[in-house]
Amino acid sequence: MTDKEARPKVLIFRSDYLPVSETFVSDHLRTLKRYEPLVVCQRDMPVNHRTSHPVLQVGQGRIGRRLFENFGWAPALSALIKREKPELVHAHFLTDAAKLLPFMAGNDLPFIVTAHGFDATTYDEHLAKFPDGERLLRRRQKLIERVDKILCVSQFIKDEMVARGYPEKKLVVSHLGIDLSAFPEVKQATSARKGVLAVGRLVEKKGTHLLIAAWAKLPEKLREAHPLLLIGDGPLRASLEQQAKELGVTPTFLGSQARSEVMAQLSQAAIFCLPSIRALTGDAEGMPIAIMEALAAATPVCIFDDQPMAEMLAAAEAGSLPKAGDVSELAKELEFLLGSSASREEYSKAGRTFVNLNFNLKTNVAELERVYDQVRALHAE
User: How many Å apart are CA 62 and CA 40, to the nearest integer?
Assistant: First the structure.
């Protein structure tokens, strides 16, 4: 028996496999060493960052979807489990765990869920307005009873879940991470890097409207020297374009981009800025991968001082942290950083060191595998 064959198997469930923004799922699969992943989804969405692992689709068609989500009927999945004998099941997002719950009720496999952001922070009255959220609300108590551990991507997410009644004994902070080997040391001089870059879906919580408003306050010559580049798409794009037009500025909307293009833009940008806020629905950041990627690319980071990573960045003096929601202070901080290559150089060096110490993908996935071991051991008692 080879080492690969001897590895215990973990069934990874993501209903949509994979949105372009969910590189953290493919990173998870790619970095597992002691466990072999079995990938299961409902909708296969080929993207260039996905792994080569075989993918099993379940709940196909309208009737198949209803049978799977309501009654746990998935013969192909049952056959996969019988054949491959996974040791545990790991679902990404609480909403996906709620979909999988009827199936999990019919077996005794250890069950782990990762809570990422919107699924843990959106207020109940807004969860109730869309099908996946309503299902989570309806099944929340049964999910709490069935799940062995819920992995929270930040302490903030854990605190939010405790406030919603999830038992603290089942919650574990488990950071995502970045593969630093994909981000070689940047050789370009800090003073030669140009532009302000933001990466994220164009939704309220990303604070893109605040970034555009702050950038519009910068002197015109500074804006010309450092254009604002926005990578990502979403429902607010039209309103953001209209906002920019009314302010008389012209940020560049690049839309969704492949990870390779994001990395290329990060390596050239003078500043990465993601002034995230809590949306009116409650939706809030968990621990954005885009910030980790910027730090790994040695790009100075500017985020609001109440974001999940802010306290850690402050302690390491590895990022600029203007007051949350304050457009004027954000503009002042951008103007200062763009005018001070020395300050950007300090943040650049400190940021890469910080992400290596706290968000190293290999280190954090190794810790995840130790959680797998612990859950299996406890489940066997």
Answer: 18
**What confidence score (pLDDT) does residue 181 get?**
86
pTM of the model: 0.91
Contact status, residue 358 vs residue 311, Cβ threshold 8 Å:
no
Q: Which residue in 299, 300, 298, 273 sits closest to 288, CA to CA? A: 273
Rounded Cα–Cα distance for residues 122 and 134 (Å)? 12
Tokens read off for 329? 């202070």
Rounded alpha-carbon distances, angstroms, from residue 42 to 86, 107, 298: 19, 19, 37
- The amino acid present at 223, given as its one-letter code, is R
CATH fold of 180-358 = Rossmann fold (3.40.50)
pLDDT in tens, 136-195: 999 999 999 999 999 999 999 999 999 999 999 999 999 999 998 888 777 677 788 999
How many whole angstroms separate alpha carbon 65 and alpha carbon 63? 5
User: What are the boundaries of each domain within the chain?
Assistant: 3-177+360-380, 180-358
CA atoms within 13 A on the CB side of 375: 27
Q: Does the fold of domain 180-358 match that of domain 3-177+360-380? A: yes
User: What's the one-letter identity of residue 320?
Assistant: S
- Which CATH code is given to the segment(s) 3-177+360-380? 3.40.50.2000
Mean pLDDT of 263-275: 95
Task: Name residue, tokens 């973990």.
Answer: 10
- The partner residues of 11 in beta bridges, in order of sequence, read 38, 89
In 10 A of CB 140, how many CB atoms?
18
